[in-house]
Amino acid sequence: MQDLMKKIVSLAKRRGFVYQSSEIYGGLKSAYDYGPLGAELKRNLMNEWWRDMVHAREDVVGLDASVIMHPKVWEASGHLAGFSDPLVDCLVCKERFRADKALEVAEGEPAKLFFPDKGAAKRALSLVERQLGVTLERRGKELNGAVGNDRGYCCPNCGSPWLSAERQFNLMFKSALGATDPLGEVAEAFEDGELDGLKGRELRAKLEALMKPSAVYLRPETAQAMFVQFANIQQSMSMKVPFGIAQMGKSFRNEITVEHFIFRSTEFEQMEMEFFVEPGTDDEWLDYWKEQRIAWWRKFANDPDKFMLRPHEPDELAHYAKACYDIEYEYPWGYGELEGIANRTDYDLGKHAKHSGAKLDYFDPVEKKRYTPYVIEPAAGATRGVLVYLIDAYTEEEVATGRGTETRVVLRLHPKLAPIKVAVLPLIKKGGMPEVAREVVEAFFARGINAKYDEQHTIGKRYRRHDEIGTPFCLTVDGQTLEDGTLTIRDRDTMEQRRISRDDAVNEIERLLREG
Ligand code: GAP
Question: What is the residue with the minimal CA distance to atom 6 of ligand 1?
Fold first, then answer.
C-alpha cells in the first residue's frame, strides 16, 4: 500500500498539486508548497468548510485572527509549559526521535541493530564495545545480542536500546518582536559577567529571562484567538449561547517527527470551531458535532467507510478535555487522525479570564443567570484533508484502446473539490474550433466557474490529462459544433459522452456541479 503513496506524491509533483518547499536548494524538511492545482484543491476544501460551518448556520460566526498573539495567551493556555513532545537521543547512531514514535521492543526481548551498510555496522560494533562495554555479534549490516530495556522501545533509526533520558521539547516556534535583539542582550550579559558561574537549569532560566521581553510565538493552533475574542464577538454580534466561532488558517509546530508527505508538517492549515454551550448540555452537543463532522467528511468521499469515529481512552485525553472523539481515516499506512472533536469544558475561558483579569462569562437574558460556557471544539486539519481526498480519489483502471488495453489514472475528486471544473477542448487547432472554444471558456469565466481552455496534444491525451487531475467534465468543440451549435460533454468517471447545446453548456455544468 505504500506504493500508493509513492504514486500520489509523484502525481502531486508532476501535475502541480504539491512540491517540496525550496526544492532547488535541496528542499526544507517537512515544508511543502501547494502548486496551481493544489492551491485550488485546498482552497475549495476550506471554502466548503466555511460555507457549511459559517454561512449555512445562524449560530456560527467567523474570525480571522493574527498568527502572532500576545505571549501571555500561550502562558494561560498551557502551551508554554506543556505543549511538548518527549525527545530521546540514540547513544549509538545519534538519531533524535520522539519517544512515542519509537520502535516498540519489550524488556528482555532481542533487539536487533540495523545499519545501511557493513561499514556503519562495524563502526557501531566498536562504539558499543568501547563506550558501553557490551560485545555484540555482527552479521553483515546487522548487530545481534542486544535486548530491549525497561522503556519498552528502541531507536527507530538503528534499533539500539541504548538511549538518553527523555527530555521535553516545546513544539512552538519562537521569534522576537520589536526592535530588540535578544542575542545582543545575552552577549551583553555575558560580557558584564552576569552569566558567570551559572550552569544547567540556572543558566537556562537566566537566558530565558533575558529573552522573554521580546519573545513571541507562531500559533500552534487557531483555537486560542477564539477564546481570547469570545467577549468581543459575543457582544458585538449579540450572539446567544449556544453559538460558535470558526476560524481557519495557518498553524505552526516544530514537529520532530514529520511523516507521510503532507500528513504531518511544520506549517499546516487548520479549520477549527469553538462552540460555546451551557454547562450540562455539553455531552449532547459533543454527540451532535461528532455526527455532523463525520457526515461532512464522508459527503465528499468516494469511500465513506474509510472514515470512523474513535473515542479517546481516559489516559489519552488532552489536559483540557473531558471527552474527545477522533475522526480517523484509513490511510495507506493504517488508521490515523484527521479531526478531533473535544469537550474542552470551561478550561480555556477560565484560564484566560484568570490570567488577563477580563470577564469571559455569559449572562443568559432569558434565564437571568451568569455562567462560563463550556466549549465543544471540532478541530480539523485542512492540509491533512487535502491528503485524505487525494488518497480517496486516486484510482487506476484498465481501459480498452484500439491496440489492447491501457491503465487510466483518474482522480475521482468530488466536483466541488476539483481544481478545474471543466476543460474546453477544440478537437483540432483550426477550422474555427479554437475561436468557438475560447468563447465557451469566456462564458464560464463570466459565471465564476474555473474553466480551462486546452489545445495541447491529441484529444485522447487531453482527456487522460484531465482525468489525472480530476477535472469532472470536458467539453469538446468539433466540426458538428460549427454546423449545429452542439458540443460533446464527457464525464470523467464514466467516460460517457453526449451532445448538448453550446448555449446550455454553462447552465448544464453549473447544474452538475451543484448536484455533485
Ligand atoms: N485546537 C485543538 C488542536 O489543535 P490537534 O489535534 O492538535 O487539536 C487538530 O489538531 C488537527 O490539526 C489534527 O486532527 C490534524 O488534522 C491537524 N494537525 C495537527 N498537527 C498537524 C501537523 N503537524 N501537520 C498537519 N496537520 C496537523
Answer: 340
